[in-house]
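Subject: for your reference before the review

Hello V.,

The reviewers asked for a structural picture of the protein, and I figured it would be easier to keep everything in one thread rather than splitting it across files. Below is the amino acid sequence we used in the manuscript, unchanged from the supplementary table.
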Amino acid sequence: MTKKNTLLVSFLNESITVKHNDKILSDSDVLERIQQIIGQVGKKLQFEIKKEKFVPSNPAQFSKELDSYYLLQRSIEQRLSFYFLSEPEFVPTLYNFQVYGVNWLKKGLPLKILADDMGIGKTAQSISALNELTKEGKILNTLIIAPGSLIQNWLNELILWAPNLLVSVVTPPASIREEAWSIVLGNNHVYLTTYDQLKLLPEKVKKFKFDLAIADEAQNLKSPNTEMYKSIKNLNLDNLWLLTGTPIENSKSDLINLLTLTKNSGVIAEDKNLSEKEIRSLSKRYMLRRNKKDILSDLPKLNEQKLEIELNQEQKEEYSNVIKEYKSGLSNKNPLQILTELRKICDVSGKNNSSSKIDEVIRLVQEAMEKSEKVVIFSFKVEPLELLSSKLKAYTKPLIYTGRLSKEKRDDTIKEFKSSEKANVLLASIQLAGVGLTLVEANHVIFFNEWWNPSINLQARDRVNRIGQKKDVFITSFLVKNTIDERLQIILEEKKRIFSGVVEELNEKLDYDSIFSQMNDSEINDLINYGQ
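And here is what came back from the structure prediction:
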């Protein structure tokens, strides 16, 4: 569809006309919404399309309240985009296993956990199911809660899989929260909001009867002591669908906590004391999980390698000096701070920013570029990504995706990486980009460093290794010889426990705190001195 440039809203004798160039918009729902939000301003309002959003070209005519524009933008963005920007030619076809997932979701249980492996299409299945239930008149309204970084992705998927549903993105600033919800509540099929907004819902919304709520990345709700958990539990719901590829991160009680989110599931908190076999039997009714390897036999080949490297000379000297200072008693840092500093040196020298890892990353990126293939590089620290960006600019156009960017800038970064042939490398925070995104335009993943929760690393990997991937996938991580990096990876392997009795291939969460809590002073010192 050809994109137009302006949208004109005119008021005459208490009636409203909306024109997009020569095309008059006749959708009564949208016209009513515009009039409801803007009010009877009695003048023409003009919008320009910038970055696929409608921005007021004469903002002064909104008097001093641009908040009114915010409500217009967020409330009807999806409908206007559907008419003028990104109207789909067709709704994609689901795989057979996804059709099974849709039918399973539609069965009348008050609680469902769709726990499919990452990259199988939980979003597509849930949207397709809610769309069918809405068309059948079985549900009238749905609340979708997702992390803030995934709101735009959900909006895109709703437009793709259910283009005829009325959707409101409700993420207003505190100053207009009551007003925003009052305007949209009861006038839409779907309300899309964030976990942060959920904790601050107006009383009117808490009392409103939602036929269905969908919680994405539902592992965020595993702790019953958090405000997010309590907020979900206090909603006035008929049905709740939880989407998560990792329903267990710490222990089997995570799953029980998810199962007790609704009052009518029949599961109680004390069920966490059941055996793994009993919990598996209990959860089977509520949970559906399929693995990629079992249902996507045609998925391209996954190639994984762990490169063993050594510190360069500058890193070796710096690493050795930190240990000598600690052993001499001159350091005022505790063991955890020392270990963190040593791990940092394994990434990059603090003196001259040299790094064996960076040299290897540049080599791997160049190899991918020779084949015109794209690369995603993950790190749990932002500083190495920024350093890599400066060094890679000599070879390509690297893009950075971290929490330091605004939400709009993050959305623009992902769009550019997907669409631009010049943007070959995405440097991404593993905490931010490791969930929810689809990055099948790339087929190379490099872990500059890895998070100590194995499930987080798997989720990050599966941003690329998922449905829609057409090329063989190459995953690279590093092991720095004769350093704590090598020893810690051995410890992690020793302490890993797989909860195969409940959920297949889910790993126990392991981090610095859990490791050190099980180590005495002698073991910590052995760790610091490893390889020296």
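For the response letter, the relevant points are probably these. Residues 339 and 528 are 7 Å apart (CA to CA). The two ends are 64 Å apart (CA to CA).

Happy to draft the paragraph if you're swamped.

O.
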